[in-house]
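Notes from the 1:1 (GR / supervisor)

We went over the backlog. Supervisor wanted to see one worked example end to end before approving the batch request, so GR pasted a single chain during the call. The sequence is below; no edits were made to it. Supervisor asked that the structure be written out right there so they could see what the output format looks like.
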Amino acid sequence: MQHDNAAISAVIRAGIGSSVSHCILYIGNGEVVEAVGEGVTRRSLASALEHASLAIALRRRSLTPLQQRAVIDHATGFARRNLPYDAIGAAGSGVAQGSKGAVLAGYGCQLYLPLCTVAGGAVANNARSANADSAFFCSELVARCFELAGAPVVQGAASFVGPRAIRWANTLETLES
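Structure output shown during the call:
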């Protein structure tokens, strides 16, 4: 069964209040590493962008060649391990403080508090450092690879970094076509 990527993207963008819904890491030679429904995968850039309606290329400012190599090594290492997609983490980042998702989650908690308590516990457990590299959602993967390379792109734990935070990180610059 094929899902409608445009519809999923629209829901994500609406929930997080962003113009972007997905992050990938370009590793060179026309290849990327990304965290998608089937997990952390390595594929061609053309395949990753096949259904994209918008793509923005960003580059880390002041990245040394050693850090660049480390980012790529971490990303490809995670892909080789066939790590699963982190749906709990993605949901947790989607309800991070200040996002539209947080407002919606607040309403949901008012309607049914036990579900909110269970979900909050699952997100907190998922974000523990012991679970840091066991599963990834897209922006978490990007943030974690740069963090491990000693060149973080955002402040705070990668477990709560959404695509919007990556898009607007002041450590990144837009590449012009």
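Supervisor's comment: The chain has one domain: 5-174.
Batch request approved.
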